[in-house]
Amino acid sequence: MTDILVTEVSDPLSLLLKVGVDPASVPIFERKGKFISLMIYNVDVIAANVIKQEMLAAGADAAVNKHAITHKIQKTSVLTFGTIAQHIKLIEKLSKMHYWKLDQIADMIQKCLFKDQVRSIDLPSGRKLIFDRTLIMGIVNVTPDSFYSKSRVEKDKVIDYTASMIKNGVDIIDIGAESTRPGSERVSLEEELNRAIPAIEAIRKTFDIPISIDTYKSEVAKQAIMAGADIVNDVSALRFDEKMIDVISEYKPAVVLMHMKGEPKTMQQNPYYEDVIEELLYFFNERLSMLGKIGLMDKVIIDPGIGFGKRLSDNLQILKRIDEFKTFKVPILVGHSRKSFIGALLNNVPPEERLIATLAVTAYCTMKKVDIIRIHDVAENSQVVRMISHLVR
What we know:
Order of helices and strands: HHEEHEEHHEEEHEHEHEHEHEHEHHEH
Pathway: Cofactor biosynthesis; tetrahydrofolate biosynthesis; 7,8-dihydrofolate from 2-amino-4-hydroxy-6-hydroxymethyl-7,8-dihydropteridine diphosphate and 4-aminobenzoate: step 1/2
CATH class of the largest domain: Alpha Beta
Radius of gyration: 23 Å
CATH superfamily of the largest domain: Dihydropteroate synthase-like
Strand content: 15-25%
Catalytic activity: (7,8-dihydropterin-6-yl)methyl diphosphate + 4-aminobenzoate = 7,8-dihydropteroate + diphosphate
Number of strands: 14
GO cellular component, one term: cytosol
Distance between the termini: 38 Å
Structural class: alpha/beta
Keywords: Folate biosynthesis, Magnesium, Metal-binding, Transferase
GO molecular function: dihydropteroate synthase activity; metal ion binding
CATH architecture of the largest domain: Alpha-Beta Barrel
């Protein structure tokens, strides 16, 4: 009987040092051993055919529309298949082709593969978000009408509620003073300020923890930051209030850009997407380009907006393809806690009965290395995150 054994491994790169390779060779094996696929949208068919031929020449492949070869269509998406090393060969070839935007595509592939991921965000207070595991954003709603009643907190109970969250492992406190559930009505600026600012002031006087203000109003954001908030969580991605960008530029908080189709009152009235992921990718590309021009890319977090102008199938696609949002190299936030898409999959159970399924999505997001999850139940979600983080980070 031989002592040789052959097995299939699921994570070969993690075993390189066990084999005994020189540590300096690890990056070489990573380029050769890591298989990746890239989707390149809206490519001229001539350029698409060139990309396919160059991938084939590198020993890899690329998928294009069946009519690309006959030019019955003008543009196609291109889906590549190959190792990092093979994609590097593609970059080298395309960068020398100054036609059909091939050199631009080479530059975009280069950035997609090798641009540095944002690993931390400095907050204006001196605090810092460090993304070495999935962070937990705990929801504190100082509203009378949030969809999950147990998340509604009276003003005189904010400190106790926050203390409990901190004890159970929360990383960020998110204060919401206007409900953005489907069908919700807007509240006045005065009312939102009266709800939010005292809560933020009370928490800041008592705890040294990052605070987020969930608002799309620039004046609320400004006063919240002055009261001690570190993060602006804007469901409109800075679109509803044109002065919001000025507040972000002046005070430089971290900012969450969330995708929403429409506005809260009407967003769930027959939303439609040809391709929800493609639409969201183009949306974030535009928003991030805008912030990049004013030097704020190092402050940005993106949120695909589960349940905000999305059908059930859209929400599931976002979760299944969450890795594609890592293209932008900025932190990703997912807010899934007790939402209606969970109820729809579980015979329409009410929010009060959606905890276990919420934890399942939390586990999935943690395994996918999502940077922040926004949740109601800190103790339970924290245990899931911390356990899985030991297995996948």
